[in-house]
Amino acid sequence: MNKLTNKELKKLESVFTKIQRDIENGINTLFTSPPIRVAKVWKRDQGGGGKSISITGDTIEKAAINFSSISGKQLPQSSIAEELKTKSHKFHAIGVSVIAHPMNPFCATSHMNVRIFLELGKNNLIENWWIGGGFDLTPFFPTKNESSIWHANAKGCLDNFDPKYYKKFAKHCDEYFYLPHRKEKRGIGGVFFDQLQHKKIEDSLDLLNAIANCYIETYVSLVNSNKNQKFTADDREFQLYRRGRYVEFNLLFDRGTKFGIESNGRTDSILASMPPAVNWPFRLSKNIIKNESKLLRFINKNWNQHIL
Questions:
Q1: What is the pLDDT at residue 308?
Q2: CA triple 12-189-151, angle to 5 deg
Q3: What residues act catalytically?
Q4: How far apart are the first and last CA of the chain?
Q5: Right CATH number for 6-305 from 3.90.1030.10, 3.40.1500.10, 3.30.70.1140, 2.130.10.10?
């Protein structure tokens, strides 16, 4: 593919809309009772649009599965590569982003996104392109078994494409999902990458598909293992407190959030990653202090080196 025609654009979009459907189908298997689903198809004045899906229910308190396909004449600063190859700066970006906030505190919050950027020259010739994405896990009461499975599955997925990818992407994930003002990792990590060209565009799309499938299969399995575990009001208090860290990262540091805002995307979709309930207590309870001490000791390990 060397030119972004309408036909080629539709083919690219179909890859990502299928990922969105597959992720939604996976999330839906987690509910005991039928969830509430809200879908919004939106268009953007500057070009393109997307479809935002929100799901709430008994197991997942809130999930957002968003597809977007947007174009512009100036690539937002948050997503500019180290060196642009075209003077026009015209671009088209397609992606799917996912966030899931479970009800049970013993189930981890998860995030996944996959995307492709096409830098376009005259007559929509593709002069540069790259892919990005990955997934990470944010537990409140983490276990060694859960963390090891998460990373082992990520490594197994990426090894099918390049045995060097996992180590590189896991390190990038730990560095990226970090709150410098708190001196904390967001969770136990996973894999994250940007500005990658894996062979040809078609090969890169295969990689993104595999990452999305690995994410939903692993996450559904982990949630199913913990969703019926009994929890107390203290457990819930700690969950709502730690969700605050998620909000802080996404609003202050996340490039996806910045890209959405800078490219004049749909605000409600951009902020769909926010948890439905969260708390920033001014005075921490003994319960929060105790559980946070345990959590920080755990997540500050390099879990990509503790694979079963």
A1: 46
A2: 85
A3: 111
A4: 40
A5: 3.40.1500.10
